[in-house]
Amino acid sequence: RFSVIQTAPPDAILGLTEAFNADPNPDKMNLSVGVYKDENGQTPILKSVKAAEQKILDSEATKGYLSIDGLPEYRADVRNLVFGETLAADRVAVLQTPGGTGALRVAADFMRTQLPKARIWMPNPTWANHPAIFAAAGLSSETYRYLGDDRTSLDLDGMLAALNDNAKPGDAILLHGCCHNPTGIDPTAEDWKQIASVIAEKNLLPLIDFAYQGFGDGIEQDAVGLRTVLEHVDEAIVCTSFSKNFGLYSERVGAVSLVAADVEQCTAALSQLKRVVRTNYSNPPRHGGAIVATILADEQLTRLWKEELETMRLRITRLREQFVETMKSTGSGHDFSFLLRQKGMFSYSGLSPMQVDELKSKHGIYIVGSGRINVAGMSETKMNSFCEAVASVMS
Ligand code: PLP
Ligand code: TYF
């Protein structure tokens, strides 16, 4: 029976990193997968995380199961980070999940069973796993316009028109809370108000994917869009990932937060979310959630984490600036100043699939076929040679 099974295509992004690891070129650079890297191309464990792990090692008393919705103190931390003081706690149900991906799948299964008529509207483009997760859950999805014709800015009018003309009341809309993957293009605070108004007028359910809080402008600043939406509607789902902002990729730490109009609706929705979890993975892994909760329960560790997060964010900003300046100095005539208006790890470089191929084969520089670059994969010391390589394939 297994003889009839066809090989599935590899993950386009994760597959590139396998090829990168196998490349013997000592000057190779990986700008593909969305993982933060330091100047040496490493993804080290944060000091705040190490310190929290030591505390846990010394004090952890049991490996007993967590409850279905996870650690209570972790769930309170998620609520504070995401919503701040803006919502009554009893209107928000938070469940600890295995990463942001786990959160998205729980949200998708919940929508499929509890809101069976809802279609989900995704930005075009979006993270490739989004349509795959929704399809796996059996949801129907549609796309709305996001990227302008210049491929460097948001087409807000196109986005709002697509939603106004085509979305039906009761549909859901996927939004990236900040640091849009793959374009780095985020709505401005003013844009968010207009988006929120259309969501309210059309009675859409916002599903906000929040995987890069703190990578755009700061922890609180990056929540402005999400909180603006919540000023206009009383229902939403937020999928949090702490993979990037705590550097906890392999620990699988995330959360799904459901905002309901009142405590009764919140309690009922929570019970259905728990049902989804039971048939997926029963209950979440403890360690990653315990790390986050340990850091945020300790003033000193919290300060250290915030500094480390700021260091990551500022390095990305610096690399964006240095890349734009260095590209200018190559005299190739390509203006990359649009990168300065974009947020987070990613931007669409404008490189074609052929140019991306050439960068890989001739220079050991790995970029996703769409031309999406992970800015954090650049290096200050290698910026000149990197920009010369980019200029050479673009000429
Ligand atoms: N959502 C977006 C937009 C992402 O880029 C990622 C990245 O991995 C995720 C969700 C999933 O995060 P996690 O690794 O925590 O599952
Ligand atoms: O977009 C990225 O690069 C990150 C990491 O199947 C990632 O979100 C990429 C592909 C994938 C899972 C995570």
Tell me the layout of helices and strands.
Blueprint: H1 12-22, E1 29-30, H2 47-59, H3 72-83, E2 92-97, H4 99-114, E3 120-124, H5 129-137, E4 141-145, H6 156-166, E5 172-176, H7 189-201, E6 205-210, H8 224-232, E7 236-241, E8 254-259, H9 263-278, H10 287-296, H11 299-329, E9 346-348, H12 353-363, E10 365-366, E11 372-374, H13 383-394
Parallel strand pairs: 1-10, 3-4, 3-5, 5-6, 6-7
Antiparallel strand pairs: 2-8, 7-8, 9-11
Instruction: Extract low-pLDDT stretches.
Output: none
Read across the widest sheet, the strand sequence of neighbours is 2-8-7-6-5-3-4
What name goes with the CATH superfamily of the largest domain?
Answer: Type I PLP-dependent aspartate aminotransferase-like (Major domain)
Number of helices: 13
Q: List the domain count as a whole number.
A: 2
Ligands: pyridoxal-5'-phosphate, (2S)-2-hydroxy-3-(4-hydroxyphenyl)propanoic acid
Average predicted confidence as pLDDT: 96
Q: What does this protein look like?
A:
The protein has 395 residues and is α/β, with parallel strands linked by helices. The chain has two domains: 10-44 and 305-394, Alpha-Beta Complex (Aspartate Aminotransferase, domain 1); 65-297, 3-Layer(aba) Sandwich (Aspartate Aminotransferase, domain 2). The protein has 13 helices and eleven strands. Strands 2-8-7-6-5-3-4 form a seven-stranded mixed β-sheet, sandwiched between helices. It has a two-stranded parallel sheet with strand order 1-10. A two-stranded antiparallel ribbon has the order 9-11. The structure holds pyridoxal-5'-phosphate and (2S)-2-hydroxy-3-(4-hydroxyphenyl)propanoic acid. Residues 34, 99-101, 127, 176, 181, 209, 211, 241, 243, 254 line the site of pyridoxal-5'-phosphate.
